[in-house]
Design goal:
Length: 180
């Protein structure tokens, strides 16, 4: 298969991963002498293994790495076209297409939902009601591209960036003092 750029290769493999039920990470890439990426490897996120050093810790952390060999490698040819070099589609773990929407790489807040969350937060509407409204507009949870936790995180960041009463005056006085 041929693609016009690296982004298109990545998007193709991510769509495949979404349909099959796993998530993708970029394993490695190489740049040419001109500084442009000319080789990329995309793998299942369960690729690799963590080193187990049980003597160093009493409570080892859980890991999702199982040594999965599923991967796709692509490179840029002389004509400037990306070609797939190798593909390995076998996983050593279960995949779940029904849970693909819950994987972090597949969750995304649309601009419409972001705006609705901000406006509802400024007017004092609780977040769970705003989220339920978005679910209703999407015709169900299965059609949502995010989970409630994503909405909570977005609203939290928006609140931090919003200036409150007296904040502008405090910033102005601080900078005046620093300038003096």
């Amino acid at each position: 298969m041929e693609f016009k750029d690296e982004k298109e290769v990545s998007e193709f493999y991510r769509r495949y991963a979404y349909d099959v039920g796993f998530w993708v990470r970029r394993r490695n890439s190489r740049k040419g002498e001109d500084g442009v990426v000319n080789y990329v490897t995309l793998t299942c996120c369960r690729e690799g293994r963590r080193s187990n050093n049980t003597s160093a810790s009493l409570k080892p952390h859980p890991t999702i790495q199982t040594g999965c060999k599923a991967r796709l490698t692509a490179s840029l040819d002389i004509r400037g076209i990306w070609k797939i070099l190798t593909v390995d589609l076998k996983h050593n773990h279960k995949t779940s297409p029904s849970k693909s929407i819950l994987y972090r790489c597949n969750r995304e807040l649309s601009a419409n939902v972001k705006r609705k969350l901000e406006v509802n937060d400024m007017t004092g509407i609780p977040l769970h009601k705003s989220y339920n409204s978005a679910v209703f507009e999407a015709s169900g949870y299965e059609n949502m591209t995010c989970v409630e936790k994503d909405c909570r995180n977005y609203v939290g960041r928006a609140r931090q960036l919003r200036l409150g009463e007296g904040d502008a005056a405090a910033i102005h006085s601080y900078f005046s003092q620093m300038q003096a």
